[in-house]
Amino acid sequence: MSDVLNRIEELRATALQQVQAAADTAALEELRVRHLGRKAELPNLLRGVADLPPDQRGAVGKAANQARQAVEALIDERTSALAAGELDARLAADAVDLTLPGTPPRPVGRLHLLTQTRREIEDVFLGLGFRVAEGPEVEWVHYNFDALNHAPAHPARGRSDTFYVRPTDGTAPPEHGSPDEIVLRTHTSPMQVRSMEAQGPPIAIIVPGRVYRRDSDATHTPQFHQVEGLWVDEDITLADLKGVLLAFARAIFGPDRDVRLRPHFFPFTEPSVEVDVSCFQCAGSGELRGTKPPQRCNLCKGTGWLEILGSGMVDPDVLGYVREFGYGDGAQGFAFGMGIERIAMLKHGVPDLRLYYDNDLRFLEQFG
Ligand code: DAH
Hints:
Blueprint: H1 2-21, H2 25-36, H3 41-47, H4 54-94, H5 113-127, E1 131-132, E2 138-140, H6 141-144, E3 182-184, H7 190-198, E4 203-212, E5 223-233, H8 238-253, E6 259-266, E7 269-278, E8 287-288, E9 295-296, E10 305-314, H9 316-320, E11 332-339, H10 340-348, H11 361-364
Parallel strand pairs: 1-4
Antiparallel strand pairs: 2-3, 4-5, 5-11, 6-7, 7-10, 8-9, 10-11
Helix pairs in contact: 1-2, 1-4, 2-4, 3-4, 5-8, 5-10
The structure holds 3,4-dihydroxyphenylalanine.
3,4-dihydroxyphenylalanine is lined by residues 187, 189, 228, 266, 269, 310-312, 335-337.
């Protein structure tokens, strides 16, 4: 009899000690099975009580039952203590910081090469102190041709070169002439007089935008893009023009570039120049490096120079249109105009103007 009671006490002590030492709820579950499960010794002893001599049943049954309850109670107590700690640990480990920015989705598109190039050009001139202005694409003949000194018979005025626009109701504000005198602007230069009317000197602006001409072939599209530049103050000279355009050429085509000015003619500048940048493919040599016998550079056609824009000192006749806005005798400065398509073609080796407008992803995805 005391053997059985001793055994119960032993089982109880071992179980309690193991339960006390269990490190987590999984271990406790395992101990519950080991000590209280169907095959465990203590429950078996309890089940065997009925077979004992009657005078032993009470004491053994009581001891075994108490032992079982004690083990069960301790397992329950330890389980709830450990479970709380385990939950805390899991919550801490799983914590999601909702204030963190989400994983950014891969951008589905990119800027068109022409937009990228326009922004690049704008950045360069903003850095040089120019402001970006925009003007209307539907323009008076006055600003597009007359105020820019185009002779009445200038060929660009012809209907074969220029899109003329009629208001649908046949009327137009009377300030600059009849409805016949509205065009889709053929260049961004009309913004020269417009912006000087809006602001006295000093003025330093660039004007990016769409322009239109009745032309369509491998090197011409009816709509394309230009950037106009204008800097007028009292003492702006051809040297400033060259310095500004040299800084521009180096920013866009590389720090080793040079520029040269070639005499030219535009109705609205005097003197007028065309501006070339030294060829970045052959470093201005006209020959492809490392070729024997020397091969002619295909980009500059062996000349060492690439034409990038038209420019000149603003003609006094043009300033005459804005005299009353503060551009009197002392005012002088320069203007320039470039094609965005051409700048991007040169810089990225784009062989055909129409690639810009075909929307072929194989082309577009090469940039940006
Ligand atoms: N407007 C001219 C063109 O479309 C380009 C140009 C030349 C603009 C000389 C200028 C300039 O401002 O000074 O061909």
